Amino acid sequence: MSLSLGEIVNQLGGELIGDSRVIIRQVATLEKATPDTIAFLANERYLKQLQATGAGAVIVGEQLRNSLDIPHIVAANPYAYFARTSALFNPQAEVAATRHESAVIHPGAILGESVYIAPHVVIEEGARIGSGSRIGVGAYVGAGSTIGDNGTLHPHVVIYHGCRLGRSVIVHAGTVIGADGFGIAMDQERWIKVPQIGGVSIGDDVEIGANTTIDRGAIDDTIIEDGVKLDNQIQIGHNVHIGAHTAIAACVGIAGSSRIGRFCRIGGASGIAGHLNIADNVEISAHTLVTKSITEAGTYTGAYPFERNRDWRRNAASLRSLGGLTGRVRALEQELKLRKKGTS
Amino acid sequence: MSLSLGEIVNQLGGELIGDSRVIIRQVATLEKATPDTIAFLANERYLKQLQATGAGAVIVGEQLRNSLDIPHIVAANPYAYFARTSALFNPQAEVAATRHESAVIHPGAILGESVYIAPHVVIEEGARIGSGSRIGVGAYVGAGSTIGDNGTLHPHVVIYHGCRLGRSVIVHAGTVIGADGFGIAMDQERWIKVPQIGGVSIGDDVEIGANTTIDRGAIDDTIIEDGVKLDNQIQIGHNVHIGAHTAIAACVGIAGSSRIGRFCRIGGASGIAGHLNIADNVEISAHTLVTKSITEAGTYTGAYPFERNRDWRRNAASLRSLGGLTGRVRALEQELKLRKKGTS
Amino acid sequence: MSLSLGEIVNQLGGELIGDSRVIIRQVATLEKATPDTIAFLANERYLKQLQATGAGAVIVGEQLRNSLDIPHIVAANPYAYFARTSALFNPQAEVAATRHESAVIHPGAILGESVYIAPHVVIEEGARIGSGSRIGVGAYVGAGSTIGDNGTLHPHVVIYHGCRLGRSVIVHAGTVIGADGFGIAMDQERWIKVPQIGGVSIGDDVEIGANTTIDRGAIDDTIIEDGVKLDNQIQIGHNVHIGAHTAIAACVGIAGSSRIGRFCRIGGASGIAGHLNIADNVEISAHTLVTKSITEAGTYTGAYPFERNRDWRRNAASLRSLGGLTGRVRALEQELKLRKKGTS
Is the ipTM above a cut-off of 0.90? Predict the structure, then answer.
């Protein structure tokens, strides 16, 4: 595919500064760009690379409007503009609507039109696959589960029985949706299993990374609303509810029955304890454990600041007697106050 | 299925207060319960929902015996009672003892009676599958490995060679048992692989969540005793030994050769360093890293307390000079002592 | 297999002290060793076990040369010597170069000589499998991806399209290489997907554990250099670059575009934020979050020191006002200085 800068701006908007006839064939990073590619500035720390880039054009924000000699497109949101540009040059590959003979599809399953079924897929009784969906190699759709239209299951995705995925949901390889939640009750020195009879309900336009796990509800469903984006290796416990358009980075764990608001951003490897409420528009930093409900939007953090091991040793040892230190400071303050009285 | 409250109490014990003829058809949450369902109070924070519930009956503890107008069952352990009630209404589905033609079973494997083998299963030479077991879609059982009676492997579980699972073990989708432990030795600026020749030995009544990994031993076996319950995405290193009835929440990592006691409870995303001993009945809080052996029962914690990012910034910066602060307080204390001497 | 101690030293070097005719049949742990096995001392904390061992011989370092009555091999690097000894007694099993009839191999894929293809494997168009490679049950190799010579994919490994693995790479079960990176741009209250058009490039002699995920690059490739060793359940974000011979323990997450040096050692469940540079020979302790680039070799740590819950409660509460405490100490210091002036 090749498009002139003029054609790109015609299709996507933004303001072009420079020669509209320059031909672009692909997107590129600033560092490796060639004259037939377009790059973008995502992050101020790459300004030096912008100066040295070999790109035919770049996408920048308003503040760089007058700082560049090469053709550039000024966009209100350069990263989103870049995303759309890349989608122009990299349309999703068409997949033929075939059904591989090694797939095992129960006669009581219902498949929409133009569905691609890869080798070794298994689809159980009562499952429904929406039109235009692609079910990747070895993926499994349990009894009565539903994949909405234009869904994509990458290889080896496992959807247990009784789960519902909305339209245009993408699930990456190895992800497991609908396994039993961790419901156990201690009784006479033995754990009894609590049957997990809820399902998982996932909205439209959700994307889920690789090797993530979303447990089915204990009684009611686990719920992921529209537009949620989950990275790899995330663990969502039973009966969690995630509000629309929340984005969660890799390795996060959310314990059972917690409710996350809309438009939250949850940093990598952070955790949310069970039975909490997190308001809309909350940002959680990486490696933070949230142990109480959060009622106000804002950024919350709880990572230990790393340092050289020898410094950490000293500070961490002091941390173990910090409660005592606080008491000692209070005692000093009292002592000085008393003396003040004595001398005044 | 439908049972009267009287029949439930007949089968499960507990004390019924209210009309024994009320008909129950399913368990429910307090919030969504209807008159033909029975709910329970798991957690004091749901007391408000108890007052407003539409349930036909509820399961409660002794302390709520006289606080309710609707029929209720008083149980010493309401959550365990609920687990048994739910199991009554939700018995495990029967699965026909069939063997799908796409499964590849080595003639030297031994299958017990009434075994269900799903499509695309592979069972290698010398493996044994106990009677009544269900081997899910695409599951793999390596050479010489044993699945005890009434075992359940969910889809895509991988059991490497030379592993042993006891009776009534449940393994959820995507879990890998018996992969090589992380045994590498640095030699002349190259890592050499240490052959991992031990196996994995898992007791009876163990349940393992989805996408968990349990490595085979370097020389001797990795051992999981009876009744252990593991959640999703847990990592168990080589030669770890987990005592009976210990429960481990999701995303925990246990490094090689550590030995965990019986009846421990290990919170989500916590970690245990290698070569440690953890006593029986130890509780580890979520996100805690255990770096020393624990010889006494009790609860141990090491999570950074989260707060608003601006507060965290200030406190975390101070933490970086906490060792110095401790010294400054000591100096102040000395100074005041000296003056005291001087003035007295 | 059986070898005398003399034969072992002939093959592997080291200095034998004791009877060279002793016959060894296998390696063993000190604890469970029998007279026909050889053990080693990996860790000073096992010295007591060394004294009580039933082994026929042990591998030790220089410092134990004169401390043992039983035959022993003195090696400069006992653990590496043990690794080589174990490899002698446990050579990799030969696998017949067969291709199972249930495998689905695109006619446009290219397979080298002596390749083993297990049941239910799928290899897409343009993929290449190097000579001597073993592709395990249900593994998937996407279009145009390359597995170098002597590669091993364990069961259910998923390699997306356009990825390249070097020679002698081992990938354990359930690992996913080349899934889309987490590239999303917020635009008008909706997340737009940024196409992930880079690949993954993995060098020679790399080993990757089970259920690990390595994302494809957003534009350029994600790169793992020669000799890197990755444990289980690691998450490598898009465009990460890992230098040669770096070893990473389980459950680590590395965010997008970070660059890790050579010969680094990264402890379990630690994390590295995005867009950072980590120098060569850096060691990161377990559970540490690295939030800034590291320019000097050394050990860096950031784990909260765990303690009994009641102590943690007190200290963690004080941590929340540590910034204030620092100010109070400064005030006390000022106060005393003033008084000193006043009295002098």
Answer: yes
Point out the catalytic residue in the list B238, B245, B275, B287. B238
In order along its 344 residues, chain B shows pLDDT tens digits of 899 999 999 999 999 999 999 999 999 999 999 999 999 987 777 888 888 999 999 999 998 998 889 999 999 999 999 999 999 999 988 888 899 999 999 999 999 999 999 999 999 999 999 999 999 999 999 999 999 999 999 999 999 999 999 999 999 999 999 999 999 999 999 999 999 999 999 999 999 999 999 999 999 999 999 999 999 999 999 999 999 999 999 999 999 999 999 999 999 999 999 999 999 999 999 999 999 999 999 999 999 999 999 999 999 999 999 989 999 999 999 988 887 776 65
Shared-domain flag, residues A74 and A123? no
Domain boundary among A29, A55, A89: A89
| Chain C residues touching A210 at Cβ < 8 A | 158, 176, 179, 213, 215
Q: How does DSSP classify residue B45? A: G
Q: Which token pair is C184?
A: 């999303």
Is residue B245 part of the annotated active site? The answer reads no
Please indicate, yes or no, whether residues B192 and B252 belong to a single structural domain of this protein.
yes
Residue pLDDT, tens place only, C75-92: 999 999 999 999 999 998
- Strands A23-24, A15-17: pairing is unpaired
Distance of CA C140 to the CA centre of its chain: 23
Report the C-alpha gap between C218 and C198 in whole angstroms: 5
Q: Does C301 touch chain A (CB under 8 A)?
A: yes
Residues C43 and C176 in one domain: no
CATH of the domain at C77: 3.40.1390.10
> In this structure, is residue B138 part of a structural domain?
yes
CA distances from A249 to A229, C185, C255 (A): 8, 14, 9
B250·A233 Cβ contact <8 A:
no
Cα–Cα distance for residue pair A205/A207, rounded to 1 Å: 7
Q: How many domains does chain A have?
A: 3
Q: In terms of domains, do C69 and C16 share one?
A: yes
Task: Give CA–CA dist A238/A197, Å, rounded.
Answer: 10
* Tens-place pLDDT, residues B286-343: 999 999 999 999 999 999 999 999 999 999 999 999 989 999 999 999 988 887 776 6
Same domain, C216 and C240: yes
Nearest-CB residue to B235 (from C79, C251, C325): C251
Instruction: State whether C300 and A307 contact (CB < 8 Å).
Output: yes
Residue in C87, C210, C287 nearest the CB of B213: C210
- Best CA proximity match to B256, nearest among B287, B219, B288: B219
Domain annotation covers residue C97: no
How far apart, in whole angstroms, are the C-alpha atoms of residue A238 and residue A29?
A: 41
Taking the C-alpha atoms of residue C211 and residue B254, their distance in angstroms, rounded to an integer, is 16
B131 within domain boundaries: yes
Query: Chain A residues with CB inside 8 Å of C342's CB?
Result: none
Q: What range does the domain containing B280 cover? A: 104-300
Retrieve residue B306's tokens.
Answer: 């989260």
Q: What residues of chain B lie within 8 A of the CB of A315, using their CB?
A: 319-323
Q: Which of C123, C176, C216 to mutate to test the interface with A (most CBs of A within 10 A)?
A: C176
Q: Which residues of A touch B251 (CB under 8 A)?
A: 235, 251, 253, 271
Q: Which one of the listed residues C238, C245, C275, C287 is annotated catalytic?
A: C238
Residue in C87, C233, C268 closest to B233 by CB: C233
Cα pseudo-dihedral B159, B165, B171, B174, rounded to 10:
-10
The whole-angstrom distance between C164's CA and the closest CA on chain A is 18
| Residue B281 touches partner A, C-beta closer than 8 Å | no
Contact A262, A281 (CB under 8 A): yes
Say if C306 falls within a structural domain.
Answer: no
What residues 91-150 of chain A have any CB closer than 8 A to a CB of chain C? 100, 102, 118-120, 137-138
- Taking an 8 Å cut-off on Cβ atoms, the answer to whether C189 and A32 are in contact is no
